Amino acid sequence: MSTYFPSGKGLADNRKWYVVDAAGQTVGRLATEVASILSGKRNPKWTPFMDMGDYVIVINARQAIFKGSKAEQKVYRHHTLYPGGLREISVQDQFEKHPERVIELAVKGMLPKTKLGRAMAKKLKVYADANHRHTAQQPQPFELPSGSTQV
Q1: Full-prediction pTM beyond 0.70?
Q2: What's the total number of domains in the chain?
Q3: CA triplet 80, 100, 12: central angle to 5 degrees?
Q4: pLDDT attached to residue 78
Q5: Which CATH number belongs to the domain containing residue 39 in this structure?
Q6: Cα–Cα distance for residue pair 7/31, rounded to 1 Å
Q7: Beta strand pairing status for 17-21 and 140-141?
Q8: Which of 145, 125, 138, 144 is nearest to 16 (CA)?
Q9: Does pLDDT of 72 surpass 80?
Q10: How far apart are CA 137 and CA 83, in angstroms?
Q11: Which range of residues forms the domain containing residue 112?
């Protein structure tokens, strides 16, 4: 009896494309499902040190929601590397200007912080509205599991 061991050959040829509709979905729950698809954890041939994941297109990012007090309290911070250069933007302001970045940051935070994680993040495409430019790849719709409706 032999054990299956995947090689890196042909991984890019066998990747699927999925479309996830973010309308009415909680950002955190959406991000965990998308991160599991990108990392390949839903693939039966998953291997921890290989990029086995598929491409994900998230549409309607503008219609995603935050539950609880995150909409008022969550803040994104970055530093400009200059003295006194700590910049803050609230999630409400970021969501109004660039709703795609909110979803991207949530998903990237759930991926590994390595070269492999950066390769996984490149397969994520996020759009604020229902229009996307990946129709040639014939993406399949992906239904997110409906969780509890607690607030």
Answers
A1: yes
A2: 1
A3: 100
A4: 96
A5: 3.90.1180.10
A6: 28
A7: parallel
A8: 138
A9: yes
A10: 46
A11: 17-66+98-141
Tokens describing residue 129: 């509205």
Helices 27-39 and 99-108, interaxial angle, to 10°? 60
Distance CA(140)–CA(82), nearest Å, equals 45
First-to-last alpha carbon distance for the chain, in angstroms, is: 51
Region 9-37: what's the mean pLDDT?
A: 94
Query: Quick check: 107 and 121 in contact, CB under 8 A?
Result: yes
Is residue 1 situated within a structural domain? no
- The verdict on residue 88 lying in a domain is no
**How far, in Å, CA of 51 to CA of 91, rounded?**
30
Closest CA to 139 of 15, 49, 9, 10: 15
Residue that the structure tokens 């290989």 belong to: 50
State mean pLDDT over 75-85.
97
Domain membership flag for residue 77: no
| pLDDT tens per residue, range 96-140 | 999 999 999 999 999 999 999 999 999 999 999 999 999 999 999
Average the pLDDT over 63-77 and give the result.
Answer: 94
Structure tokens at 29: 């729950």
pLDDT in tens, 141-151: 999 887 655 55
